[in-house]
Specification:
single chain, about 120 residues, mainly beta, seven-stranded mixed β-sheet, 11 strands, globular
Length: about 120
């Protein structure tokens, strides 16, 4: 079992930056591929970014490419999502996700999920 706890969400203005964090426990963190997903009100959950076990491979949704950066610290069992130039359409609950082994191919299939953290960017 993997426990994931997100933090760092909040209410920010358009154009601001925010960093989300995800603390993982229960498994050797470096054995887990990790990802961020989000779900806006009335919409399905969507892929945001993923990162390989060692951190050398990352993929982003087109909607966040160039504005968001996913990273990890395997020594601290932490996953991050640095978000720049936030837009109202980034408003969503952001979820941290984990899977054993490699990333695989889209659509990415993750096994473990956090409870989510709310990010709100008013228009």
């Amino acid at each position: 079992q993997v426990l994931l706890v997100e933090s760092g969400g909040g209410l920010v203005q358009a154009g601001d930056s925010l960093r989300l964090s995800c603390a993982a426990s229960g498994r050797t963190f470096s054995n887990l591929a990790m990802g961020w997903f989000r779900q806006a009100p009335g919409k399905e959950r969507e892929f945001v970014a993923v990162i390989s076990r060692a951190g050398g491979i990352t993929y982003y949704a087109d909607s966040v490419k160039g504005r968001f950066t996913i990273s990890r610290d395997n020594a601290k069992n932490m996953l991050y999502l640095q978000m720049y130039t936030l837009k109202p359409e980034d408003t969503a609950v952001y979820y941290c996700a984990a899977k054993l082994g490699g990333l695989g191919i889209p659509p990415y299939d993750f096994d473990y999920w956090g409870q989510g953290t709310q990010v709100t960017v008013p228009s």
